[in-house]
Input
Amino acid sequence: MTVPNRFNDIEALGQLLQVTLQSVVGTFESARIDVPVRRYIAYGSVVADCEQLTVQLAQLYPGLPGADPSQVARCNGPRTAVLIVQLFRCAPVASGPRGQGAPTSEAISESTLRTVRDVWLMLDSAGAIDAAGWNTGVIAEVSPIDMSGGYIGVSMTLTLTVP
Output
């Protein structure tokens, strides 16, 4: 799905969120890496209560990516969106009281390698997302999300022009 090229279309931002989600899924599927079945777009933060892939709107400002959003910019020109793409997966955890039943070193290493693949593919997906829009380039960085509640994740902050 390609986003039509048009400035200041009220639907463009929502379409960008959907295209971003589809592009990330497509990148993982092309590499034959499973993506959680639960996938959605959201406004603001999400709760990691299961394996899931989300795309969230974090910020929208007038001007091009990389510009200082606190500087004066024309409102009828390009707009920049900052999106957060997060992928959460189950992680090995202790199964008993006071750390009894700790996960094996093999389970921890396997989970780490899966997460490292997720980090790599998440960054790869930035190119597919850019290609679906104006192909003007993106600012992207991928960071770990510490384990919480039995889930570990990766988060990509993506700054790009809204087509």
